[in-house]
Amino acid sequence: MVKDGIQPLLPDVDAGQYLIDWLMEIGPTLPAGMGSGVLTFSEIATWQQLVGLELQPWEVRALRRLSEDYLAESNAATDPRRPPPYGDRQRNPSIDRQIDEALSTHL
Prior knowledge:
mainly alpha, 4 helices
């Protein structure tokens, strides 16, 4: 989306933004067979060593969990009817109808 000039609607992150930044720096998934796979502990350890960081064990587990969740949502998001993962953004049929009626008078 971003490469096409579209800014995705994302939720605000209250804490832990640095973990998301690290995940994106490492790469949220790895190539695996016919698709993608979850980051391995060895990949995280190698990255950690190369960039000169010493992560806490909980941070390593959090990065792995974020990778798992990213991959799961990436796979689920191939369904165009899937709602955004960060909240109930379902359309309200009543409001949709009102908008359609209002717009139809101007077309």
